[in-house]
């Protein structure tokens, strides 16, 4: 009887200890969402279908641009983002989120240095097709210069075309705008397609941290460009949509972010 009592007390202590730990170990709303988003990106056939659909449309639009290209005009080019457009970084996102950790540059750069990210479905085939038709590919990314080596390694692993210094255009300085880099490409090429997962990948109209309302207004104005010149790849995990939700205040605590999410989410 005494042994049984001791055992019961020990089990009770264990349960109470676990209960006490639960709030501390519970994922924030944002990280819980990122876990599910990463799972969807990694496991769902629907995600793959959407990516294939996007790059199938890209091929059709590229063929049209090649057909309409006038002799003597500037050579054609496709501009693409890298992360979640060409390379799939969901393992890094998932590892951080499942441990309830916020984004940090050090962990991100440790990941990119490995150069082991998988590709987004349909992406390699499309860019190789573009190159086979004589269309240049430029990789305009907001990865930093110290990520060049790992990024180049990753691109070359999959035999991606134009994986060279001139066509891999990384962020210079602190500005995340890609507009000046697109303009540099336009000096010598006619950009016929832009591929991305984040709206600033396409036009400067989304630069300078516009509000959610402004982003929606611009998107409605440009609606005919999507599927025409702009090819967007699904990314529910991160991006300016998240920044706009929090008014681009990156100092918010997880609890404050959770509060914002709950205040704007439609539940009835």
From TrEMBL:
Residues annotated as signal peptide: 1-20
Keywords, comma-separated and alphabetical: Lipoprotein, Signal
SUPFAM superfamilies reported in the protein's UniProt record: HAD-like (SSF56784)
GO cellular component terms attached to this protein's record: cell outer membrane
Keyword Repeat: no
Name of the protein this chain belongs to: 5'-nucleotidase (Lipoprotein e(P4) family)
Species of the source: Mucilaginibacter yixingensis
Lineage, highest ranks first: Bacteria, Pseudomonadati, Bacteroidota, Sphingobacteriia, Sphingobacteriales
């Amino acid at each position: 009887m005494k042994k049984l009592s001791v055992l019961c007390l020990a089990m009770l202590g264990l349960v109470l200890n676990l209960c006490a730990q639960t709030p501390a170990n519970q994922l924030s709303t944002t990280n819980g969402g990122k876990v599910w988003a990463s799972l969807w990106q990694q496991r769902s056939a629907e995600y793959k279908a959407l990516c294939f659909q996007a790059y199938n449309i890209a091929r059709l639009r590229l063929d049209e641009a090649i057909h309409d290209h006038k002799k003597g005009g500037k050579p054609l080019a496709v501009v693409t983002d890298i992360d979640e457009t060409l390379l799939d970084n969901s393992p890094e996102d998932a590892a951080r989120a499942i441990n309830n950790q916020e984004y940090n540059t050090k962990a991100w750069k440790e990941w990119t240095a490995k150069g082991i990210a998988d590709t987004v479905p349909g992406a390699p085939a499309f860019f190789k097709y573009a190159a086979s038709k004589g269309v240049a590919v430029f990789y305009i990314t907001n990865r930093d210069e110290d990520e060049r080596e790992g990024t180049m390694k990753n691109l070359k692993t999959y035999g991606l075309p134009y994986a060279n210094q001139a066509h891999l255009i990384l962020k210079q300085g602190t500005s995340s705008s890609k507009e000046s880099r697109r303009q540099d490409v336009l000096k010598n090429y006619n950009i016929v397609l832009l591929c991305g997962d984040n709206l600033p990948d396409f036009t400067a109209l989304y630069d300078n941290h516009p509000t959610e309302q402004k982003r929606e207004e611009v998107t409605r104005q440009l609606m005919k460009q999507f599927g025409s010149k702009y090819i967007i790849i699904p990314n529910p995990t991160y991006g300016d949509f998240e920044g706009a939700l929090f008014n681009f205040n990156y100092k918010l605590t997880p609890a404050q972010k959770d509060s914002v999410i709950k205040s704007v989410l439609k539940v009835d």
